[in-house]
Each structure stands twice: as structure tokens, then as C-alpha cells.
Amino acid sequence: MSTRFTKTVPVMRTLMLGGLAVAATALVALAPSSRAEEAAEAKPAAEKHAAAKTAKARKPAAPPAQNPAAPGEPGLLPFTPAEVTASPPGAIDITSDETMEWHNDQLAAVARGHVIVTRGEDTLHCDTLVVYYRKANDGSTEMYRMAADGQVVMTSPSQQAFGDHGVYDVDQDVTVLTGDHLHLVTRSDTVYARDTLEYWKQQQLLVARGNAIAINDKGDRIRADVLVGIMEENAAKQLEMTRMDAKGNVLIVTPKDVARGSEGTYNVKTRIAILTGDVKLTQGQNQVNGHRAEVNNATGVSRMLPDETVKGGRVHSVLIPKKSDQPAAPAPAAPPAGGANPPGGGAQP
């Protein structure tokens, strides 16, 4: 996907008739980006003054949502989407409170001070934004990358993502967030990550890397090295998470059990998780080992299943009985009657 930026320039022509200046305003023309500076210099001073006055009078935009810290064990966060101003389909609108700079030698534009980027129903808030361009085949320039820095907040109708830094790859339509307290919030789920949060828009995938944790509004919790959330449109045409794939050091905690495995898949609707690879189900001191397990968070029942790929594969359990369940020790024998000597001979003292 590519987006071409052009600048709209009003053109004014002045006709001299009989020594009197008759001003006629032409229609708005789209000037190629290579002639943008030349057209801008041709603007009358009065027009420049009016534009500056309008920009000064514009009401500052509301501050972006703050990135909430997540002290201690993370939990489910409330979803509070910010108000979004719709833009023309496909258009990218960028505003800032301070400056916008164009670096011609680097083919880059820099916006500073509470930057707001709007595209359709999606918005991006950050402190600084750098937009990178490249030469297109027709000689114009096209945007291919955006880098956001400082208090990065991404908002769409169905989710919000928070980070310190963000990079958007236009060609792949992928956004990657990094920084402290990385998390994404939907109406029913909160996903945390230590290393990166990635959103693949075309594939509708969310990827959390590094001690990733997903929590839903029912209290289900899954942890892994990498979590991949599969999202689909619901009846209201909004994205919602339907499945979560986990890879590496998978951990699922229920009120009764702790389940561990190498990989896992969690079905959001049924609340059933399937774990595979060196699976261990632990309840108190009891543990069941196997290759495949089913953890049903809705019913609270966990089952260890045999390995379907191995003939005769069996499930191994290690149960530790409670002390009250162990057989009682036999009572000591009563001493012999009549003062008889104890076994082995010898007189009683």
C-alpha cells in the first residue's frame, strides 16, 4: 500500500486592464510535490497573514490518553476509546501543536508537540512523529514508514494500544510498539508484553512477544513467551479476539489447577485451552504428566489426554496422599501378665 502526499496551492492571477488591477481567483489546482516550494513562494502576503491568523486561533486538541502504569501483577484494564474524527477514506491527516519540518535531503517530515494522526476511524497520538518518503516510479514521492516517539497511544473503534515507541510499515500494513508497560485493551481482553506488541492489520493478528499475558473479563489468564491473537469481525462490524495461540513456556492458571506446556491454543468463546508438549497438570501436591491436556475454564474441569501420535501412549500421574489418608501405625503390644520376663530372657528390674 502506498500513500502519495501532494500539496493543494491556491493560484491567483492578476490582469492589468487600463491601468486598473482586476483580480480574478482561479480554481484550486493540485501542484506536484516537486513544485510545492515554488507555488508556496507565490502566495500573496495577505493570504499568508490570514493563514497564520487562522492557525493561531485554532483550539488545541485534547491531550492523549495517559499510558497507565501496571505495578505488580497486571490485570484487566477498562476500555475507554477516545473520540475519533473521521477523515476521507484512505487519507492520512497529521496535526501538531508545535512545528512541522520538511528535510528535503533525507526525504523526511517531522511533526513535534502532541501529534495526532488520523486515518478513517483510527488515530495515533504521540509527542514526535517522523514520516519517511521515497521516490516513486512516476517521479513523485510516497510515504513508506512512520515512526512515533513518546506517549504513543493507538486508538480504533475496538481497541487501544499503549507504548513508548511505535513504527508503522506502510507496505506490510504492520504496526510495532515497544517500550515499558506495553499493553493492548479491548472491550473484553487486556494483553501485556515485555518486548513488542505487533498489529498485522491485513491478517487481523495481534502478536505479543516476551513474557506475554492475556486476561479476559471472565478472569481467564494465559501466559507464554509469544501470544498470537486471532481477531474477527462480529455482528457489529467490530474486531474481537476469537482465539489465542501460545508458544513457549505456556502457563494457564485456574482456581483449581495450574497447567504447563510447550504450546497451547485458547478458544475465547468456549473458554477451552488445549496444551501440547511436555504437559503438566498440577493441583496442590498432585501432578499429572502427559503430552496433551484440555483445560476447560468454563466448567473448571481439566483432562490429560494420551498422545495421539504415539501408539500405546499413556498418561502418568503422581498422587501424594494426605497424612489423614495414610494407614495408622499399629499400637504397641501390651506387656505380658504375671510379671513374666520379656523376650530374650533376663530378669525385670
Automatic annotation (TrEMBL):
<feature type="signal peptide">
    <location>
        <begin position="1"/>
        <end position="31"/>
    </location>
</feature>
<feature type="compositionally biased region" description="Basic and acidic residues">
    <location>
        <begin position="39"/>
        <end position="50"/>
    </location>
</feature>
<feature type="domain" description="Organic solvent tolerance-like N-terminal">
    <location>
        <begin position="196"/>
        <end position="300"/>
    </location>
</feature>
<dbReference type="GO" id="GO:0017089">
    <property type="term" value="F:glycolipid transfer activity"/>
</dbReference>
<dbReference type="Pfam" id="PF03968">
    <property type="entry name" value="LptD_N"/>
</dbReference>
<dbReference type="InterPro" id="IPR005653">
    <property type="entry name" value="OstA-like_N"/>
</dbReference>
<protein>
    <submittedName>
        <fullName>Lipopolysaccharide export system protein LptA</fullName>
    </submittedName>
</protein>
<dbReference type="GO" id="GO:0009279">
    <property type="term" value="C:cell outer membrane"/>
</dbReference>
<feature type="domain" description="Organic solvent tolerance-like N-terminal">
    <location>
        <begin position="94"/>
        <end position="192"/>
    </location>
</feature>
<dbReference type="InterPro" id="IPR052037">
    <property type="entry name" value="LPS_export_LptA"/>
</dbReference>
<dbReference type="GO" id="GO:0015920">
    <property type="term" value="P:lipopolysaccharide transport"/>
</dbReference>
<keyword id="KW-0732">Signal</keyword>
<feature type="region of interest" description="Disordered">
    <location>
        <begin position="39"/>
        <end position="93"/>
    </location>
</feature>
<feature type="region of interest" description="Disordered">
    <location>
        <begin position="319"/>
        <end position="349"/>
    </location>
</feature>
<dbReference type="GO" id="GO:0030288">
    <property type="term" value="C:outer membrane-bounded periplasmic space"/>
</dbReference>
